[in-house]
What we know:
The complex is a heterodimer of chains A (434) and B (314).
Chain A: E1 2-6, E2 9-12, E3 17-20, E4 22-26, E5 29-34, E6 46-50, E7 55-58, E8 60-65, H1 78-87, E9 90-95, H2 106-119, E10 123-128, H3 142-148, E11 152-153, H4 163-175, E12 179-182, H5 187-190, E13 195-196, H6 199-204, E14 208-209, H7 211-228, E15 232-234, H8 240-251, E16 256-260, H9 288-299, E17 305-306, H10 335-344, H11 350-356, H12 359-365, E18 380-390, E19 409-419, E20 422-426, H13 429-432
Parallel strand pairs in A: 1-6, 2-7, 8-9, 9-10, 10-11, 11-12, 12-15, 13-14, 15-16, 16-17
Antiparallel strand pairs in A: 1-4, 2-3, 4-5, 7-18, 18-19, 19-20
Helix pairs in contact in A: 2-3, 4-7, 7-8, 8-9
Chain B: H1 17-31, E1 48-53, H2 59-70, E2 74-79, H3 91-99, E3 105-110, H4 115-120, E4 126-132, H5 138-152, E5 159-163, H6 170-181, E6 185-189, E7 205-206, H7 210-213, E8 219-222, H8 238-245, H9 249-252, E9 260-262, H10 275-278, H11 285-304
Parallel strand pairs in B: 1-2, 1-3, 3-4, 5-6, 5-8, 6-7, 8-9
Amino acid sequence: MKILLTNGNIVNTEKSFIEKKDILINGAVIEKIFSKGEDDCNNDDIRIIDVEGKVIIPGLIDMHVHLREPGEEYKETIETGCRAGASGGFTAVACMPNTEPANDNSSITEFIISQACKAGLIKVYPIASITVGREGHNLTEFGELKKSGAVGISDDGSPVKNSEIMRRALEYAKYHNLAVISHCEDTDLSKGGHMHEGDISARMGVKGIPSASEEIAIKREISLAEFTGCPVHIAHVSTAGSVDAIRQAKEKGIPVTAETAPHYFTLDHSAVKGYDTNAKMNPPLRTASDIDAIKKGIADGTIDVIATDHAPHHTLVKEVEFDHAAFGIIGLETALPLTLNLVREGIITLYDAVKKLSLNPAKILGVEGGVIKAGAKADLAVIDPEEEYIFRKEDIQSKSRNSPFINKTLKGRNIFTMVEGKIVWSRDSKYSCC
Amino acid sequence: MSIFNHKDLLGIEQLSVDDINLILQTAESLKEISQRDIKKVPTLRGKTIVHFFHEPSTRTKTSFEIAAKRLSADTVSLSSSGSSMVKGETLIDTAKNIQAMNPDIIVLRHSSSGAPHLLSDKIPASIINAGDGANEHPSQALLDMFTIKEKKGKIEGLKVAIIGDIEHSRVARSNMIGLKKMGAEVTLSGPPTMMPHNVESFGVNVVNNPSEAILDKDVIMVLRIQLERQSKTLFPSLREYSNFFGINEKTLHKIKEGAIIMHPGPVNRGVELSSQVVDSPYSVILDQVSNGVAVRMALLYLLIGGTRSEDIVN
């Protein structure tokens, strides 16, 4: 059976415009996109879904999530993480290798993919580790990992300290066409820190994480990318100095791309006041001027991607003393409305926002998606950018609820998510069944 | 008499000038009890106070215990090594279990900044912060302010220098906040490695060299150097610390006539203060300890002695 999405406004990420057209989906693929009356699709075998007044976007792709499986299934499983993604408008996520054990070999990569298939919701692209056990010593088998389905490599929160190993990783990953994602942190400088080092950490008596710890590490990756000519992707940029360094590198033609997360352009370090562990993440929330710089970086293209760094944590590691609490917040279910705030503020256009959440990460990871066009997979989300609602704990699909946005009013909401022609999640049952 | 409208004492941050004045006045009237032959009044008879110390403490714990006993409260002590926290119980669970035995006050000392804040809205008993990480040590700042007022007759308008490891000091934080609230002028001094980034946001001056910082000061508050900081590259050696940042006979002659030297204890003689300075007439270190009991009696009395109206929450 075919599906016709009619009366929707389609966001075209390739040509940057919005067009009111119908989409005919045949199986997993978009068969054609056409204006009303241009074609006669009256056929009994077509399910017509009227999305009048709604916006159709390419399925969002989050290139930085933590799905916790294998090893920490009490926080999230691949299935619950996929459901959280689907409900947030994502049709694909790339999951970091900081599982237990680390995703440093093809059997774990294959396990992740098979769990994702069983869940049958959205696409999961494993990111494998750069070094065995994420310990920073021996390179993993990039070729094998790629063959098993890994799309990129990263040592995630235990960044490769040894510059020689990082250099070789960049060179070898380029040969295998694997994206290299770097969590940039000088861990000597940030050691023992729990929040941004500034006036609020001084006030609260909490050891700080200086902006320099991120910036030093970013500058090393830029130097290595310049020297080797191999691309590097910088994860979760949080400081003004980082944005400047990446902007200069791009101006020099160095192959560097970068992402930030919605919380880094939404909240500053004052959110931590009262020792709120739901505002504790790494890198930490920074200052208002860092937020401004990140917005500028998003606007001028220095920052290519918005990724969530979705980091589910159980209350067991969050409802504890601030300096014992785990770093990270969930993000898949709030990324869309928080990013749409940038559109409403006039920082970026709707197409650019959607691009940073779909086409750009797809290109960096070398995966399909991010465009709505005939012949492409029918991976898309139908959203209402204007709907206002309160983000409630009960509505969270992730297995964890560690979000600073609970009980906050958000604007812009996903209505249903389609992966390869199948509606995998919808807020209204009228869309889910045939 | 005004009313102390707080369920807990989390920090000086949460107190108003009126609150601080009320505590200091109450302490003044209770101080005399400790000088009696029979050092006990029945004010808190039938009340239970748990001293939950998750970090080693001699003086603060003893001071709280004596304060509670002089007011006739029943006291129980719990340390982390003797508690089930070593068996993996979370702080909240331990506190809830203590709460289940219905104490009136939990006096908490904890190595994590914000630990008493974590418990305050989950536990109906009053929480007194007896020192949390590098955040606050409010009863220490209150006894320091009490001592300053006793010796100098006032706090407002005084010039106070706080010298040493500011970054890791909850005593410094509580005093900075409290002294500023009470109208004193605060100058911080010590090695730049132990001065918090953006500390000026407290509204204080920074003069790194202590021998400059002490000039014209009415109060010189010297902090304890924690010896393990040396291994964290914050200063090269105790010898160098004492030569460049310690207060000794050489610096003593620069001190203004009538100034007082304070220290929260325990003193490392020969490091931050030379022995001669500790034993000099400028030193009020032992008065601080005596006043600690009176101030803590005042805190216990104000939190559960009946002045707090029953319907207020925080």
